[in-house]
Specification:
This is Methyltransferase FkbM domain-containing protein. Keywords: Signal. Residues 1-20 form the signal peptide. This protein has helices spanning 3-18, 129-135, 153-158, 189-199, 221-229, 231-240, 268-277, and strands at 33-38, 54-59, 73-76, 79-81, 85-90, 121-128, 141-147, 169-175, 202-208, 215-217, 247-254, 288-290, 301-303. The protein has 305 residues and is of the alpha/beta class. Helix 4 packs antiparallel against helix 5 (221-229). The protein binds 2-acetamido-2-deoxy-beta-D-glucopyranose (2 copies). One 2-acetamido-2-deoxy-beta-D-glucopyranose (NAG) binds next to loops.
Length: 305
């Protein structure tokens, strides 16, 4: 085959989808880093208001159209999981705030519809975590990955193997003490996350849960491992008290990063809290500035002068 023809054939293959994977190659020039929020609900991670080099990409298949638009926030109406395709998704909580590809492990107020009716189900597009990460052009920094995937967090992150090391800062929703929010999923901090993330070269920095869930910062891997070695005893005590769900955000930092923590907070107090969760105590040196954001509740900031 003549070289010219080979080029043409390759071009045709590409045009038919036989070639390069899709890529976010038309982002505004000047963008150098990306915050990714999977399962954003109505409160996506927002880019700092005054730093035009940062964009945020939020994924939510149920409430995407209700997320208020913001500069440099991109909203993708899709679920993310270990594999792509099409799936049914249970819409839980009246506002779709905790919809999942999985079935709840128990019947509770948050997952039954009005007066006990079955929750509605939607058919949603699902992207593989790998395709999401690979779509971010390699020249861009993937500064933060925040997941709140209602049980799919661990399997999705584990599905990409060493590709996860593109991300220096990770916040993931985890389950604790062997309690399951959804059936058939592995998302336990001690059983699944901690051993895996240590193997992948991440430092466990903190666990931060609401209500009865633990709030802990870890001095190092051994501190987190000790916390986990005491998990079985705690688990029984929780069960005896009738606790069915225990969830928290886990904070991870890649072992070799020298980047500052991602700028994701609104109030000064929150800046300090979240920075501490990522193991950063001298946050003032980064001069982050609180920035008010939409949606209510979440705390995201910009970096000041
Ligand atoms: C970070 O973790 C990776 C993967 O476990 C490992 O190969 C590497 O040596 C570690 N680097 C540092 C600086 O600890
Ligand atoms: C803006 O964000 C970039 C990363 O995209 C970071 O390197 C830079 O320090 C930030 N600038 C300011 C002024 O915060």
């Amino acid at each position: 085959m003549r070289p010219g023809r080979l080029v043409l054939t390759l071009a045709l293959l590409r045009a038919r989808g036989g070639g390069a994977a899709p890529l976010l190659d038309q982002l505004p020039s000047g963008v150098t880093s990306v915050l990714i929020n999977i399962g954003s609900s109505l409160n996506p991670v927002l880019p700092p208001p005054e730093n035009r080099s940062v964009i945020s990409i939020a994924f939510d298949p149920i409430v995407a159209s209700e997320i208020r638009s913001k500069p440099r926030l991109y909203v993708v109406p899709a679920a993310v999981s270990e594999e792509g395709g099409l799936a049914t998704m249970g819409v839980y909580n009246a506002d779709g705030g905790s919809s999942s590809l999985l079935k709840p492990a128990m019947t509770a107020e948050w997952n039954v519809g009005f007066e006990g009716a079955l929750p509605p189900t939607k058919i949603v597009p699902v992207l593989s975590m790998q395709s999401v990460l690979e779509a971010i052009p390699p020249r861009l920094l993937l500064w933060l990955l925040k997941t709140d995937m209602q049980g799919k967090d661990f399997s999705a992150v584990a599905s990409v193997g060493s590709l996860i090391r593109r991300v220096p800062y990770i916040m993931s929703e985890v389950w604790l003490e062997n309690l399951h929010t959804y059936e058939g999923a592995s998302n336990d901090y001690c059983r699944d996350w901690l051993p895996y993330m240590l193997k992948m070269g991440y430092r466990p920095k903190a666990l931060h849960g609401g209500g009865r869930a633990p709030r802990r910062t870890f001095a190092g891997a051994s501190d987190a491992l000790t916390f986990c070695s005491q998990s079985t005893g705690r688990s029984q005590a929780r069960r005896n008290k009738g606790v069915e769900i225990l969830e928290a955000d886990a904070f991870w930092v890649r072992n070799d990063t020298s980047l500052p923590p991602p700028p994701i907070f609104i109030t000064k107090a929150a800046i300090n809290n979240e920075a501490i969760h990522f193991g950063v105590r001298d946050i003032d040196k980064y001069n982050y500035r609180p920035g008010l954001q939409s949606g209510g509740g979440n705390v995201w900031a910009g970096r000041g002068k």
